[in-house]
Each structure stands twice: as C-alpha cells, then as structure tokens.
C-alpha cells in the first residue's frame, strides 16, 4: 500500500516517556474522540425513537425495520472490512467514513416517511460498520504502541459521547423539539469534529498483503528473545488487498460473545425508552433518561475496565460481566415503577460495559502483530456482533407485537448467561499476542509514519539481530515476566 502523505512524528514503542510523545498523545485523543463522536451520533437519534415513532405513525414492528436496515448495512460493510483494511488501512477508511456518518445521521433526521428512514438507516449502517471496525483496529494498534490494555478506555469514549448525545436528546424531548430539528442539529455540529479527527489517526503497518513472516514477525524473529504466538492468525498471499487470512477458532468464540453483548446493548438502546413509557408508564422526558443512564454506567465501568482486566484477565472479567448484566436485566424486567426500571438499566450498563471491548481486544490479540490480520479478526468479530445488533431489537419488536415488550426484554437474560459461560472457552492471556503490562527492558525504537519505513526498519532490525520491543514483550509473556492472569 502506498504511503499516506500525511506527516506524523515518530511514534516510539518503548514505554519510558511514551505518554510525553505529542504524536502518540494526539492519536490516543483522536481515537477516543472518534469513539465519542460515534456514540453521540448514535445516541442523539436513538433516544428520540419515541418521537420518531410518533412522527411516522408506525408500530413497534415497523419501527424495528429501521434498526434491521441499520444492522444489515453494518454487517454488509463489515464483511468487506478484512480486505478493505488490508488494502487501504484503517486510517484512510476512518478519514472517509467518519464524516459520512454525520451526513447519514442528518439524512435519518430529514427523511419524511418510513421507506426513506429505512434507506437512511441502511446507509448509516454501512458507513458506521466501516467506522466501527476501523476505529477498533486503531485502538488495537494503540494498545501495541503503549504495550498495555487501552480498549476499555477507548470504548469509554463511546459511552461518554452516548451520554452526551442522550442527554441532549432528553433535553430536546423536554423542550418538545421535533425529531428532525434535534437530530439534524446534532449532525451539523458533528461535521467539524469529524474533519478535525481526520488528522489524528495512527499509520497502519506493516504493508497490506504481506504475511507476518514477511514483515516484522520473520525479520525480528531472527533476533534473541523471540517467542512466537501460536494463537495468531496467518496471512496468505502477497497481492495487496487480496490476502487470505486464516483465523483461529477463538476469534469466533469472541465473536459470539460480542454478538450477545451487542444484542443486549441494542435492546437497551432501542427499546428502553418505549419500555419505560409504554409498559411502566413513565413520562417521555423521564423515559428518555434510560439510555443515557445506561451509557453513564457503561462509561463508569469502562473507565476502570483496563485496570480490572490487567488485574484479573479477560476471561474472568467477561464471566463476571455476563452475570452482572443478567442481574440488571432481571431487575428491569421485574420492575413495576420508573425508579426500579432505571436502576435495572443502570446495572445492565455496569455489567455489559466490558463485553464488546474485551471481545474486540481479544480478537486483535489473536490476530497477531500484523494490522491486516488483526483487522480481519476484528472485522469478523464486528460482523458477528452486528448480527446481534441486527437481530436483537427486531426480535424484541416482533415479540412485543405478539405479546408484550416486557416479555421481549426477558429474552436478553439468556444472552447474559451465554456470555458468562462462553468466556471460559477463550484462551488464557499467556496464549495471546498481547503486550505485557511491564515489558522486559524494551529496546528503544521508532515507528515511522510511513508504512514502508516501518517494514524497512523491521528488516534492518532482523539483519542486526536485535529483537524489537514487541518481540521482547512477547518473550516476557511466555516466560512469565509481566504475564497477565488469564
């Protein structure tokens, strides 16, 4: 892949002083900001679903078609993201997709009837699917640069953005501002933010189409301290954009967990407001607080999630997350008053907050150090997750039409239990190609912004016999130095 013309300062891979590097700090801020903008764009129209229902005069089942169209668009684009990331890189894709997300949200607000909203929802799903995979790939690259878990913190940006968008939507509902006016205003505000974010992303390296062995893995593997990751996927083929990636079975387990997590999140996002208003009898302005309250709990959990994961390991945290989400869902389903319902959704947020971030983090680690392979793993997990986002709200909508919305919500309890049990099938942290919390004396090195320069540096490292910092981190994981519990 040709080098991106944007100029970036050198990004160091050693831990000492890494937070003082301006380019890396800018990238961390930009990636978190992308998560926040994406969360805000989703929330600002999601919390106004009751107003959209009134505007279109449709049933719960018809309203579910909008979510279905969004999910189909997301799954379709995610199915292509493995090749797109390999060919163009996550940075280029984000620079295109994020501004388009703001335009798609504006189209949802301006659409005059159900078919038009469904079409706009599909378009939003396509560009959002690209954004989701690309920004998670960027977060995985950032974890490698920092050599520690950062994924939960990135997803905390999503939650904070969703809380902000949700609260703005609740204020708009309280002020009797129409669906179109509130959603279009938010989209217009998001345009300059999206344009600023374009200059903050990390370069993708090594070049697309090369196998791990042809780039960093093979050349650095000739030096001391090499500990190969047997769980990582393999890239086959040398033509850019046409690499065939073989992914380990654990990627699909992580995808199934993300499927359940997104199904739970989608149920709360799309139906909690209607559940409180129509089933429990809350006022619309109060019911609109359910989603931002859920996202506030999600943000709270994600802000501490990286520290918890580094302490206890992904499997244990995922199991506990499933159990906590199940308890919250049970409370929401059993609620007969507004306070109990809001408390239930808050607890669901605390429980489910780490399910999807950890699934993506594990997928990126299973994909190995090659961004194309990690991108393919994240794309596969994302496609499975969006299938859950696609099916969940639709299934609940049809169940609500056939019986009650309370009955529809009760089906999500099974998903929470599935997360708790499925987490035990994931490999231990020591089997993954993830950075140690305290790498063993990493050698200073620079990662150039140009992808070709990165490969050249890796080849020079292989010729000199000096192991690069990532390899030494792997060795530390294998021998026990800095190993994280699984």
Tag the structure with descriptive keywords.
disordered N terminus, mainly alpha, 4 strands, 71% helix, 486 residues, two-stranded antiparallel sheet, single chain, Growth Hormone, Chain: A, 2% strand
**What is the CATH superfamily classification?**
MFS general substrate transporter like domains
CATH fold-level name: Growth Hormone, Chain: A
Gross geometry: globular
Individual helix count: 20
Q: Approximately what portion of the residues adopt beta-strand conformation?
A: under 5%
Low-pLDDT runs of 5+ residues are: 1-17, 206-232, 235-242, 430-486
| Whole-number count of domains | 1
Structural class: mainly alpha
Describe this structure in words.
α1 (22-46) runs parallel beside α4 (90-110), α5 (114-146) packs antiparallel against α16 (371-402) and α9 (249-280) packs antiparallel against α18. The strands form 2 sheets. The protein has a two-stranded antiparallel sheet with strand order 1-4. A two-stranded antiparallel ribbon has the order 2-3. It is built from 20 helices and 4 strands. It has 486 residues and is an all-alpha fold. β2 (234-236) and β3 form a beta hairpin. The chain has one domain (11-208, 247-428): Growth Hormone, Chain: A (Up-down Bundle), CATH 1.20.1250.20.
């Amino acid at each position: 892949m040709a080098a991106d013309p944007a100029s970036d300062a050198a990004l160091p891979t050693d831990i000492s002083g890494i937070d003082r590097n301006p380019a890396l700090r800018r990238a961390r801020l930009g990636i978190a900001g992308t998560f926040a903008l994406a969360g805000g764009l989703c929330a600002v129209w999601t919390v106004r679903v009751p107003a959209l229902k009134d505007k279109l005069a449709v049933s719960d089942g018809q309203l579910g078609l909008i979510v279905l169209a969004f999910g189909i668009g997301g799954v379709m684009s995610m199915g292509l993201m493995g090749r797109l990331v390999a060919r163009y890189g996550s940075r280029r894709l984000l620079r295109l997709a994020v501004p388009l997300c703001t335009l798609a949200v504006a189209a949802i607000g301006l659409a005059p009837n159900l078919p038009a909203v469904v079409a706009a929802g599909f378009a939003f799903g396509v560009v959002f699917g690209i954004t989701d995979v690309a920004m998670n790939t960027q977060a995985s690259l950032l974890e490698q640069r920092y050599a520690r878990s950062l994924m939960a913190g990135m997803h905390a940006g999503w939650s904070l953005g969703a809380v902000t968008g949700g609260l703005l939507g609740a204020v708009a509902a309280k002020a009797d501002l129409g669906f179109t006016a509130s959603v279009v205003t938010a989209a217009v505000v998001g345009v300059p933010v999206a344009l600023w974010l374009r200059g903050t992303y990390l370069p993708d390296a090594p070049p697309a189409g090369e196998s791990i062995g042809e780039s960093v893995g093979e050349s650095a593997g000739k030096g001391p301290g090499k500990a190969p990751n047997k769980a990582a996927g393999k890239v086959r083929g040398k033509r850019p954009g046409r690499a065939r990636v073989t992914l380990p079975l654990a990627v699909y387990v992580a995808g199934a967990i993300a499927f359940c997590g997104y199904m739970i999140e989608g149920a709360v996002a799309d139906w909690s407001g209607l559940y409180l208003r129509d089933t429990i009898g809350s006022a619309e302005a109060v019911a609109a607080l359910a989603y931002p309250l859920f996202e506030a709990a999600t943000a709270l959990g994600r802000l501490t999630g990286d520290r918890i994961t580094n302490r206890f390991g992904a499997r244990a945290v995922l199991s506990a997350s499933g159990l906590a989400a199940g308890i919250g869902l049970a409370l929401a389903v059993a609620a007969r008053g507004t306070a109990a319902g809001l408390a239930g959704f808050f607890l669901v947020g605390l429980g489910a907050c780490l399910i999807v971030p950890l699934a993506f983090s594990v997928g990126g680690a299973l994909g190995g150090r090659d961004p194309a392979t990690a991108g393919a793993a994240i794309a596969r997990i994302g496609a499975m997750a969006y299938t859950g986002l696609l099916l969940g709200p639709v299934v609940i909508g049809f169940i609500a039409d056939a019986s009650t919305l309370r009955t529809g919500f009760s089906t999500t309890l099974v998903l929470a239990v599935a997360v708790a049990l499925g987490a035990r099938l994931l490999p231990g942290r020591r089997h993954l190609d993830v950075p140690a919390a305290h790498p063993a004396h990493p050698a200073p090195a620079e990662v150039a912004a140009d992808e070709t320069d990165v490969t050249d540096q890796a080849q020079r490292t292989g010729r000199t016999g000096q192991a690069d910092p990532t390899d030494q981190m792997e060795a530390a994981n294998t021998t026990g130095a800095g190993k994280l519990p699984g």
